[in-house]
Design brief:
- The complex is a heterodimer of chains A (about 325) and B (about 280).
- Chain A is about 70% helix and about 0% strand.
- Chain A is mainly α and about 325 residues long.
- Chain B has about 280 residues and is mostly helical.
- Chain B is elongated.
- Chain B starts with a helix and ends in a 21-residue tail after the last helix.
- Chain B has one domain: MetI-like fold (Orthogonal Bundle), CATH 1.10.3720.10.
- Classes of the chains: A mainly alpha (about 325), B mainly alpha (about 280).
């Protein structure tokens, strides 16, 4: 039996090269549509709440005349659709309104807290992304441990973020006393100056995300390692790390990007929970605390900005995935 | 270890464990040694023979609160999951059976909803709605689209099967065929899907409770316990660890049960289980 002298080059996934205009436009339109939908939902939800800004501002015992004047002055007597358009219009021009509680511009509070949230979410992504790839590799690549790996990924992905946060806090600050149980940042301090405060929030976000991402990716890994050229390379005795880097990984780039974009969107929402639990000053905890104090301008602006961050993240992920995706042949 | 017995035991372990955990979650309050809502000791006591898991921030027995703390959470989650599954199944039956523009419209709406993380939906819903309603709304918006997709594909396959064509030839009406022929055929899928929706509902319900938008304070509730006792985690870690283990065990076992029911030999992760968006299937 003679073997071929030169190994055939590993096939590369053919990429689309350039994103064609139509899907790009479609993704953009969908993002704008969703953001408009979210803004309507947020506005409607805050409209449904009993009481308005006047009830918060008016001094107890004020007569009806005064209340009516104040309502007129704030423009609250206009029709709801008009007030929605006013509000959405000022959001578009960058005017996010002022807090009812402390009278400070909402934009200031957001600008102060957004970096803190991005630090936690970015840290969690930096940990969860390679971890999910490694877990998916283990689950999708091995045939023997498949039942076990499926169970581990399913179970890990099902864990509520609150549970991982509580368990990590109980172990690392309760039993071991390694990190403080609350992550209160001194005002004005950057989260990077206090890495010990970032540990619990980042770890509790990253853990379920890694399992969730891996459970979505494992199928793609299992499909790729069964491709003929991978089996062929294995038969030729190509070392496993080479097979991984040249024969398998390029095919995983597109699903990997999609999964990462999805998990990033979920992470920003889950950050609200972790921030509140650990007292960490991000936009998630701002949304929750302003909900509790019925500070409606802050609730409205924060919810829309958070949704916008999520949707733009998903859009970028979609575009990157479209760029890296193997060209699909029309299947009939 | 007996070779024949081991796989049987292994396959039975998840259903049995799930049944045990669910029984404790639903009826555990009956065995609570102390009142779950009144103080019986000093705050943050470490475990002792009277308080097996110590006491919480207000000196209430942690064990009693954990035993009583699953019912409300599980109740609202089951209601939300059933609603999401029912809406998704109805949509999937319609989209898979009728096809055409109706199917495209339903799928487009589903894809639009799927683009939003369910926790964000829950937060938006919780602005104006009470806890129970917010959990139901978020689970339906975030879960029904996934159910719809799974059911739609199964119905499309069932449409061209022999028993459906036989029923069509017998002259049975659409509603009758959908309810008596197609629905029983996709039943297993729907039951497994209900389990997955229940897991997401539990995640959403517990998240809202942790954020202080859920169960009201004196009530024993696992997620609320996490919120209340986090400040004392360094003094009595059990006050946080015990409800975390209870909540975690419940969700993980339910997810494993759904997975087991779905199929034993499917490639891992090939099913769409979470808020993931897939590109529309071509063809």
């Amino acid at each position: 039996m003679s073997r071929p002298v030169t190994a055939p080059a590993a096939p590369r996934p053919r990429t689309a090269g350039a994103v064609t205009g139509v899907p790009l436009l479609f993704a953009l339109v969908r993002t704008v549509l969703l953001l408009a939908l979210v803004s309507v939902a947020v506005f409607t939800a805050t409209e449904l709440l009993p009481g308005d800004a006047v009830d918060l501002r008016v001094t107890p015992g004020a007569d009806e005349e005064e209340v009516r004047e104040l309502r007129e002055e704030l423009g609250l007597d206009a029709a709801p659709w008009r007030r929605y358009l006013d509000w959405a219009g000022s959001l578009l021009t960058g005017d996010l309104g002022t807090s009812l509680v402390n009278g400070r511009p909402v934009a200031d509070a957001l600008a102060q807290r957004l970096p803190a949230t991005l630090a936690v979410v970015g840290g969690a992504l930096a940990v969860a992304t390679p971890a999910s790839l490694a877990l998916a590799w283990w689950a999708g690549g091995s045939r023997r441990a498949r039942r076990l790996s499926t169970a581990v990924l399913t179970g890990g992905a099902a864990l509520p973020t609150a549970v991982t946060a509580a368990a990590l806090a109980a172990v690392f600050s309760g039993a071991l006393g390694l990190v403080p149980p609350v992550s209160l940042l001194p005002p004005g301090a950057s989260p990077w100056q206090h890495p010990e405060l970032l540990f619990l929030p980042v770890a509790s976000l990253a853990l379920p995300t890694a399992f969730f991402g891996a459970s979505l990716l494992a199928g793609a890994v299992a499909d790729t390692v069964r491709l003929p050229h991978v089996a062929d390379a294995r038969r030729r005795g190509v070392p496993p790390w080479r097979i991984a880097s040249t024969d398998v990984l390029p095919f995983l780039l597109a699903p990997f990007t999609r999964v990462t974009a999805n998990t990033a969107g979920g992470l920003i929402a889950a950050a609200a929970l972790v921030e509140t639990l650990f007292g960490y000053p991000g936009i998630g905890s701002l949304l929750v605390s302003s909900l509790a104090s019925r500070d409606l301008p802050v609730v409205q602006a924060t919810a829309v900005v958070a949704a916008a961050v999520v949707l733009v993240g998903l859009l970028v992920g979609d575009l990157v995935a479209a760029l890296t995706e193997p060209r699909r042949r029309p299947v009939r | 270890m007996n070779r024949r017995l081991a796989p049987v035991l292994a396959s039975l372990s998840v259903p049995l464990l799930s049944a045990a955990v669910l029984a404790v979650a639903l009826f555990g309050g009956w065995w609570a040694p102390h009142s779950p809502t009144s103080s019986t000791g000093a705050p943050w006591q470490l475990p002792d023979p009277v308080h097996l898991l110590g006491t919480d921030a207000l000196g209430r027995d942690v064990l009693s609160r954990v035993l009583a703390g699953g019912r409300g959470l599980l109740g609202v989650s089951v209601a939300a999951a059933v609603c999401a599954c029912a809406v998704g199944t109805a949509g999937g039956l319609a989209a898979g059976w009728f096809g055409g523009p109706a199917s495209r419209l339903l799928t487009a709406v589903a894809d639009l909803l799927l683009a939003l993380p369910s926790l964000l939906l829950a937060l938006l819903a919780a602005i104006a709605l009470p806890w129970h309603t917010a959990v139901v709304v978020a689970t339906v918006c975030g879960g029904a689209p996934l159910t719809l997709r799974v059911v739609k594909d199964a119905v499309r396959a069932a449409r061209t099967s022999g028993y459906v064509e036989a029923a069509l030839l017998r002259g049975e009406g659409t509603a009758s065929i959908l309810l008596r022929e197609v629905l029983p055929a996709v039943r297993g899928l729907v039951v497994a899907d209900l389990g997955l929706r229940l897991v997401v509902a539990l995640q959403v319900a517990s998240a809202l409770s942790v954020l202080g938008l859920g169960a009201a304070p004196p009530a024993p509730d696992w997620a609320l316990m996490l919120r209340e006792n986090m400040t004392g985690v360094a003094i009595n870690p059990w006050a946080v660890a015990a409800p975390a283990v209870a909540l975690g065990a419940t969700t993980v076992l339910l997810a494993l049960l759904a997975q087991l029911y779905l199929s034993d030999d499917r490639t891992p992760g090939s099913r769409d289980r979470g808020p993931a968006r897939k590109e529309p299937a071509d063809g």
